[in-house]
Amino acid sequence: QAQLQESGGGLVQAGDSLKLSCTAPPRTVMWYTMGWFRQAPGKEREFVAAISRIGTSTTNAETVKGRFTISKDNAKNTVYLQMNSLKPEDTAVYYCAAAQPGSPATSPTSYTTWGQGTQVTVSS
User: Looking at the predicted structure, is the pLDDT value of residue 8 above 70?
Assistant: First the structure.
């Protein structure tokens, strides 16, 4: 089973930026739809962004449009989430996940492999 490992989380102030990384076994990033989700305390896991297998199509949640950007580097087997203009409401554990191409990218049930998550805390 593929193993995903997130990194790059931390404690920042509102308005700051962070870049999360997700490393995966070889070919995972190349062959799967890759997504980022987040879960705040007491809330359900929610979709943040996804990138297609080919990498030409990305989808962002409305709450992060214009602020977050998902990208990937197939050669490095890594997916990134650049987060700018962070807000306190972005505070959550952020998870990287992999889904079969063609399945709904915004639904967590499409994703079969998940990382352990990385904490992002934004202070006001």
Answer: yes
